[in-house]
Amino acid sequence: MINAGDLGFKTRAQMSKQFCDIAFVEEAGRVYGPIETKDGMHLLYLHSCRGGDDFKEEEADSKS
Q1: Which of 36, 47, 54, 60 is the most exposed place for a label (fewest CB within 10 A)?
Q2: Continuous H helices in 8-62
Q3: Of 62, 30, 63, nearest in space to 48 by CA
Q4: Where are the domains of the chain?
C-alpha cells in the first residue's frame, strides 16, 4: 500500500517549524498550504490529532 506521504503521528521535535505551525494549531479534517520547507512545497492534510498532557514521546510514529 502506498502511504501517499503519510507522516503518521509526530511530536513537535520530529517536525519542521513550518509543519508545527499548522499541525499543532489548526483543525483536523482540512487541507493547509502550500507550505514551503527546505524540501520543497507541500500541502498538509491534518487527518486527526492525539496527545495532550499524558502523551508520551514513544507513542509517536518513528517513520519520517
Answers
A1: 54
A2: 17-23
A3: 30
A4: 12-50
